[in-house]
Amino acid sequence: MTITIIGSGAIGGVLGAYLARNGEQVIFCDIVKDHVNKINQEGLTIEGPEETFTVKGQAFTPGELLDRNETLETVFLCVKAHHTEEALAPFLSLLAPDSQIISLQNGLCEHQIAELVGKDRTIGCFVNFSADYLEPGRILYGGVASLYLGELDGSISSRIIELKEKLQCWGPAEVTDNIWGYLWGKMSYAGLLYATALVDETMATVVRKIDLREMLMELCSEILETADQQGITPLGFDDWEPRLVYPRESRNDEKLNRQLEKLAGRMASNKKTKSGIWRDLAVRKRKTEVDAQLVPILEIAKKYEVETPLLSALVAMIKEIENGARKMSWDNLHELNEIYQFTREKVN
Q1: Distance between first and last Cα of the chain
Q2: Domain boundaries, position 34
Q3: What b-and-e string marks burial along 133-165, b requiring 16 or more CB atoms within 10 Å of the CB?
Q4: H-helix or E-strand containing 254?
Q5: Strands, DSSP E only, in 2-81?
Q6: Cα(142)–Cα(333) distance, integer angstroms
Q7: Is 213 exposed, middle or buried (0-12, 13-18, 19+ CB in 10 A)?
Q8: CA–CA separation, 256 and 90 (whole Å)
Q9: Contact 106, 294 (CB under 8 A)
Q10: Which of 133, 151, 177 is the last residue of a domain?
Q11: Rounded to 5, what percent of the chain is helix, strand, coil?
């Protein structure tokens, strides 16, 4: 099996490097020519919490990979969610009937991929480890976290078991019969991460703000209610437990606060203390994945008549930061809190 990594930055670069070091046939593909050249000439370096290593690899730009005109057997799609179609569409002619596309992305990209290549060639994947592309040929790796592979129909197939075994060289990859549960669980967590990016602070610092906690959990609950309306039960991972947040009426504040403190501790101990969302806004000065991650949730929520005042406001704030109309500030979170207090009083 040859594994082609389309998008060999943070996530794709880390997994590809571990697989290549373990002797797997890996082809790296990336739009950044300097990154491709560095991998070919000097190798790809992964700087992790327990080790730093460099692997030599075979890398191509998308155009170069197309020019090879070779069938793509297994594709790890590791691009930003809003680049899904742009990254995958050029390679459709190189796919065989039994090719498989695995979405190692944030969001619900499996829907879009399945529309492009068919459900039978689409494999769902939930991945939560943190990593940052630092410069050509160099990636910061935050450490092992959760990774689940799953068929979209919930079946346990031989191909996902095979992929799981190959990924053991990276860490404890697992197989699930509820990949949508994990993907929606992460979307509720994504709501929290986007909120932490409204201020120039670490994720842990925001999560530990007791005066903002009710608002933050209501924000996540809007996403969880949207999943619930579709009959999906979101699942927890890495100290994030949706079941303690939603349903609202069964929430136990004592248990939830203990769990959130565990989550904050995990965030604080990670080499990457601020989210990739924050990095897009504060460092790279580029658009986040909000249009491909949270906006589709707003559209689904509207279909099911789920009220989303906080999520709607959060999306608007992120877009304003993207275009320079708003600055990162604690005021943004306090503004969300005012919306929460107003809507709560209105309901009561």
Answers
A1: 59
A2: 2-177
A3: beebbbbbbbebbbbbbbbbeeeeeeebeebbe
A4: helix 253-269
A5: 2-6, 25-29, 44-47, 52-55, 58-60, 72-77
A6: 26
A7: middle
A8: 46
A9: no
A10: 177
A11: 55, 15, 30
Phi, psi of 122 (to 5 degrees): -110, 130
> What pLDDT score was predicted for residue 300?
96
As a whole number of angstroms, the distance between CA 214 and CA 340 comes to: 9
Distances (CA, A) of 235 to 49, 258, 319, 335: 27, 18, 28, 29
List the one residue out of 125, 127, 103, 128 whose CA is nearest residue 113: 103
- Count of the separate structural domains present in the chain: 2
Q: What tokens does 35 get?
A: 């990154």
For residue 278, give both structure tokens: 């924050």
Residue 84, domain CATH: 3.40.50.720
- Helix, strand, or coil (residue 199): coil
Q: Is 31 helix (H, G, I), strand (E, B) or coil?
A: coil
Question: Which of 103, 89, 62 lies closest to 293 in space, CA to CA?
Answer: 103
Residue 347 pLDDT: 65
Give the domain CATH number at 236: 1.10.1040.10
The type of residue at 333 is L
Q: Last residue of a domain, which of 146, 177, 208? A: 177
Give the β-pairing of 122-127 and 147-151.
Answer: antiparallel
pLDDT of residue 52: 97
Residues 137 and 222 in one domain: no
Instruction: In whole angstroms, give the CA distance from residue 85 to residue 91.
Output: 10
**Residue 8 and residue 83 share a domain:** yes
Which residues face 122 on adjacent strands?
101
Question: What are the per-10-residue average pLDDT scores of the chain (348 residues)?
Answer: 96 98 98 98 95 96 97 97 95 97 95 96 93 93 91 97 98 96 96 98 97 98 97 94 97 97 92 88 94 95 97 98 97 98 79
Q: What is the distance of C-alpha 324 from the center of its chain?
A: 24
Instruction: Quote the pLDDT of residue 345.
Output: 78
